[in-house]
Design brief:
Rossmann fold, two-stranded antiparallel sheet, 197 residues, alpha/beta
């Protein structure tokens, strides 16, 4: 059986530069930028955990807006890229998250897509522990019904991915969180802003 976690780390170690260049395009996406600003507008304070931060695209924005982001990624290369931008960043596994700290907001933009679906409920519990009672969680997911290894033709490599339909994902999220808003952003993004029950 393939080790999805080790392969996820390898994928982002090998393709960090290409990923960083490719994901800059989302900064031209008005719906994404509005969702990011809506997240900030709801925060009760300045402390943000950028969960699966990648190279720090969103954390850089949060910092410029006067917030205190902590970048967390499983890929050491992504953490290094965050640190090179002057961001505070640590290498950590989302599933074993144990920071001994609570945040005003957790920003999770397309990072949970790399978890097997059966692992999401326990991971959401971990995230809830790290969120202040009136804190805000952003979850950005890819829509679909696929779970497994998907070929990314842009870098000619395989990675593990879980695509969710809205209803089963809502059922999973609402075990731990109240959904404050939901947007389906074309072509295939599901975006949620949530707060703990």
């Amino acid at each position: 059986m393939r080790d999805w976690k080790a392969e996820t780390i390898r994928f982002y170690q090998d393709h960090a530069g290409a990923y960083e260049q490719r994901t800059k395009a989302i900064l031209e996406d008005k719906a994404f930028l509005e969702k990011r600003d809506a997240f900030l507008s709801l925060l009760p304070g300045k402390e943000i955990l950028d969960l699966g931060s990648g190279p720090g695209r969103d954390a850089t924005y949060f910092k410029k807006q006067g917030y205190n982001p902590l970048c967390l990624d499983i890929s050491p290369e992504m953490v290094k890229r965050c640190q090179q931008k002057g961001l505070t960043a640590i290498t950590e596994d989302i599933e074993t998250l144990n920071l001994n700290k609570q945040f005003d907001g957790i920003w999770s933009c397309a990072s949970l897509v790399h978890l097997p679906k059966q692992h999401l409920p326990a991971t959401l519990k971990k995230m809830k522990i790290h969120l202040r009672p009136k804190g805000i969680l952003h979850i950005g997911m890819k829509e679909g019904s696929f779970e497994g290894y998907q070929y990314d033709k842009r870098v000619e490599d395989w990675r593990f991915i879980s695509l969710w339909e809205n209803n089963p994902l809502v059922n999973t999220i609402t075990k731990e969180f109240q959904i404050l808003s939901f947007d389906r952003i074309e072509p295939d993004r599901l975006d949620y802003l949530c707060t703990p029950h």
